[in-house]
Amino acid sequence: MAGNCGFCSIPLDFDFTFAYQPIVNTKDNTIFAYEALVRGINGESAYSILSKVSEELKYSFDQKCRYKAIEVASKLNCDTYLSINFMPRAVYKPEVCISSTLQSAKKFNFPIENIIFEVSEQERPDEFNHIVEIFKSYKEMGFKTAIDDFGSGNSGLLLLAEFVPDIIKLDRGLVYEIHKDPVKHKIVTNIVNMCRDLGVTVIAEGIENAEDVEVLSSIGIEYIQGYYFAKPELEVLPKVNFKK
């Protein structure tokens, strides 16, 4: 499990900001949410920032990410859901570590019920129980929860069995060029049917072409994220070209 409160006071020696990418509702051509994606202040990649985050800095970084993602989104007048990634190892106690999120939401008048916390299925297996604990706490506090990269790791179904989130985001590998792949089509169809029974919203991410959008829509996936609709933009809520 993540460290202790001693990490709170460790200052970061680098700065960062966020790019935002829309998640589109293809049924009614609206924007469901924006995902906050960490970037350098000059647009440097997420990797270039995350590579600077040592174990000792994870708490400080995670806290600042939450605060800044909300701060920038609020200044951009985001009135949809806002999806924020978090680091489970940076959360030593959910009800304590959520304080900066609550402070930011209050300061910038951003409704907590519009915040989605997502965690990747690819997180370390030894974090499994800790993730479940965090998710349960966040749900009780009024936040939305999401499993990212669903289908790419080795614990997605186990996590789903222990905690039913509001959202799962299908990994790009499961949906990329699904219009050419009957096996992917069958797998995704069954995931969608399962999630429908569980009351879980499904989002397909990494979508780049109209053919995949059409197939995913026919399967019953209304929510799409990917370059087909809009690329992430630095400190901007991108406009979406709702293509037919």
TrEMBL record:
Residues 1-244 form the EAL domain. Pfam families: EAL. Transmembrane segments: none annotated. SUPFAM superfamilies: EAL domain-like (SSF141868). InterPro entries: Cyclic-di-GMP_PDE-like (IPR050706), EAL_dom (IPR001633), EAL_sf (IPR035919). It comes from the Bacteria. Gene3D superfamilies: EAL domain (3.20.20.450). This is EAL domain-containing protein. It comes from Clostridium yunnanense.
